[in-house]
């Protein structure tokens, strides 16, 4: 029955993720009708930018159990991405034995496979992420990950002191509320389209983008966070702020992350990373 098949297709997004029963199709269609224009414009820009080039220069102005709810990872799917996911993770474990397999890597490899549909491309993109862009995020000690969570805390202290004070008052460690943001690179935290745009920037300009996203979410919702009355309240609010129109409208959100947090020089991040990492090593030794 064509109408039944059409209804089934509508229940799954273009990336294979099943939509919830209360999915707002009307708002989605309205958003996508505007966003498709943006996507087309950006696609033309990228085509011009990459024409005849094997890599993009940094000074170019432009710029953009795994997935149980994704039909492409089910055994009934043809092809099923589970086998490809397994191959990429095993290959990476052999390639980088110091890291092997670590929590969060399955989501990253899975997302790369959804987009590239190619095991080798996914492998090398993951290697670029884990070895160069995010060193020590997925090592056994996870020193890079722990460091950046603390760096975010220091940035919030400087830029959004009211939220920092709320965290102190309720004795909330940053790892409680942002560890999944960093380890999953916002997969399963923010909407798919928004995550893909964040990843464009992550590959292009590096890990600084992770802080811009986190600071924007916190800054935009600072009043709500400061209303929290307890540690569980804070944790619940941090989950709440990753949903809703602000993050759904990905093009507007991506513009916000470059304005709302204000200036974020790499020199500041580097200095804070050195300080925070030294502190963590001293505490763990």
UniProtKB/TrEMBL annotation:
Family annotation (PROSITE patterns): TBC_RABGAP (PS50086)
Protein origin, superkingdom: Eukaryota
Entry keyword set: GTPase activation
Annotated Rab-GAP TBC domain residues: 36-206
InterPro entries according to UniProt: Rab-GAP-TBC_dom, Rab-GAP_TBC_sf, Rab_GAP_TBC_domain
UniProt GO molecular function: GTPase activator activity; small GTPase binding
One Pfam family it belongs to: RabGAP-TBC
PANTHER family the record matches: GROWTH HORMONE-REGULATED TBC PROTEIN 1, RAB GTPASE-ACTIVATING PROTEIN 1-LIKE
Function description: May act as a GTPase-activating protein for Rab family protein(s).
Protein name (database record): Growth hormone-regulated TBC protein 1
Annotated organism of origin: Seriola lalandi dorsalis
Annotated gene: GRTP1
